[in-house]
Design brief:
- This protein has 272 residues and is of the alpha/beta class.
- The protein folds into two domains: 190 residues, Rossmann fold (3-Layer(aba) Sandwich), CATH 3.40.50.1820; 64 residues, no CATH class.
- α8 links the parallel β3 and β4.
- The radius of gyration is 18 Å and the shape is globular.
Length: 272
């Protein structure tokens, strides 16, 4: 059994399917088709959804912490100092413009949407929404008792925290397009639970093997060399998915590196 943990912009599954249960089934079917293997999904998008926001593509309308996240993100991407300096809302607009010039308009829209949703999760260690997202992932893991978890994007942050807060026995954790090590944006904000903060960067205690995969052009997977901040990673694969789809979950799932990592678990007897 494999469980997938999704990233941002997955509320659309609920909007289409009507219930979280059916949304999870739809997402799982899409991921399983890309992976070529059966898969269940832990679905938490509704827990971070704040509703439609007028002018959602405007960086100035992001909450203050999300604006700071965007600024730290473009800094990690190599934006010059003049882009991230200034007064009032000018820097965040400059940062968004720099993103569009450097990576295209789609990247600008994606990063703004990512910051809105990710800030809802990481802004407050004690946030009920943050705890609820972790608990939903743990609920599915404890029910399904999978041998492996594949976690994409923000889902890798949710899964990593969940597996520290309440360890679950897993043969394999695969993180795809993970921002776990992004300075100021995620790494310093990780919440591993009481007594675990000193273990930040290590493999979660119930996980036997941790594999990370990152596209060379993925603007979310920063730093690209995640083991430099997370020595608990056992294997790291850098791949090329193509410029347009460099962060798409299904493109990561279709990579042969992931199939090779999962194959031994699927062929081995399940004694759990």
């Amino acid at each position: 059994m494999i469980v997938g943990v999704h990233g941002i912009r997955c509320y659309r599954y609920l909007a289409k399917e009507g219930t979280a249960e059916r949304a999870a089934e739809a997402l799982a079917a899409e991921w399983a088709a890309a992976l070529g293997m059966p898969l269940s999904a832990a679905y938490y998008a509704q827990l971070l959804h704040l509703g439609a926001t007028q002018g959602a593509d405007e960086p100035e309308l992001l909450p203050p912490d999300a604006q700071r996240m965007l600024m730290d993100w473009v800094s990690a991407l190599g934006a010059p100092a003049e882009v991230t300096m200034g007064h009032g809302t000018l820097p965040v607009r400059q940062a968004a413009s720099w993103l569009a010039e450097r990576f295209g308009g789609a990247a600008r829209q994606f990063v703004i949407a990512f910051c809105r949703e990710a800030d809802t999760y990481v802004a407050d260690h004690g946030s009920p929404r943050r705890a609820a997202a972790r608990e939903e992932v743990l609920r599915v893991l404890e029910l399904a008792r999978p041998r492996a978890v594949v976690a994409h994007s923000l889902g890798s942050v949710v899964a990593y925290e969940a597996l520290w807060h309440r360890p679950v026995e897993l043969d394999l954790l695969v993180t795809m397009g993970s921002p776990l090590g992004m300075p100021q944006v995620f790494f310093e904000r990780l919440s591993l639970g009481e007594g675990n903060e000193e273990h930040k960067g290590q493999r979660p205690p119930g996980v036997r093997r941790w594999v990370n995969i990152a596209d060379v052009g993925d603007i979310v997977a920063l730093p690209r060399d995640l083991p430099s901040r997370f020595p608990g990673i056992d294997a790291h694969h850098e791949v090329s998915l193509g410029l347009v789809t460099s962060h798409k979950a299904t493109r990561y799932l279709a990579r042969p590196e992931i199939a090779r990592e999962l194959a031994p678990l699927l062929s081995a007897p399940d004694d759990q």
